[in-house]
Specification:
CenT-Element_Derived, 58% helix, HTH_CenpB_DNA-bd_dom, DNA binding, 8 helices, mainly alpha
Length: 161
């Protein structure tokens, strides 16, 4: 009868990588962490990736490394756009964020396969703790002239940075 193995958290995988680097045997790690030989083998193969990982900014219980599909440059420009828009009391909706992301990607070379899907938008909002709120009253009202001015002057200025 085969023993069920534990899925290791990121924290444990980093610990296994450090122990492998220190010379601890493969078999002893399998027993210590109650996991499969294949798991320890895969950690050994990607040992440097696990050792280079900054676990301070990650969820310790997470079992896999998050695959980043959007480059930091694009996300930083998008966050700058959001902050500037909020400072000017402009409403930023999901479709506006998606259109802005596509525009930034178009201006940035090498990201032709990027799609600003609803899934990407949701993940972006979760990553950066962006919440959607319904505005009412005077804050919900934005004159059309301001929108045209924003698109003509402010938006190109943000994108050029």
């Amino acid at each position: 009868m085969k023993k069920a193995s534990n899925g290791l958290s990121v924290l444990n995988k980093v610990a296994v990588a450090k122990e492998l680097q220190a010379g601890v045997t493969h078999a002893s790690l399998v027993l210590k962490y109650e996991t499969s030989e294949g798991t320890v083998g895969r950690i050994r193969e990607k040992r440097q990736q696990w050792l280079d990982l900054d676990i301070e900014c990650m969820d310790k219980k997470r079992k896999r490394i998050e695959k980043k599909k959007t480059p930091d440059e694009i996300e930083n420009k998008l966050l700058q756009f959001i902050n500037t828009s909020r400072e000017k009391n402009c409403i930023v909706t999901g479709p506006i964020l998606q259109a802005m992301a596509l525009r930034i990607v178009k201006d940035t070379a090498g990201q032709e396969e990027f799609k600003a899907s609803n899934g990407w938008l949701e993940a972006f909002r979760l990553r950066h703790h962006i919440v959607t709120r319904v505005l009412s009253g005077q804050r919900a009202f934005a004159p059309v002239e301001h929108a045209e001015d924003y698109k003509a002057n402010t938006l190109p200025e943000i994108l050029s940075q």
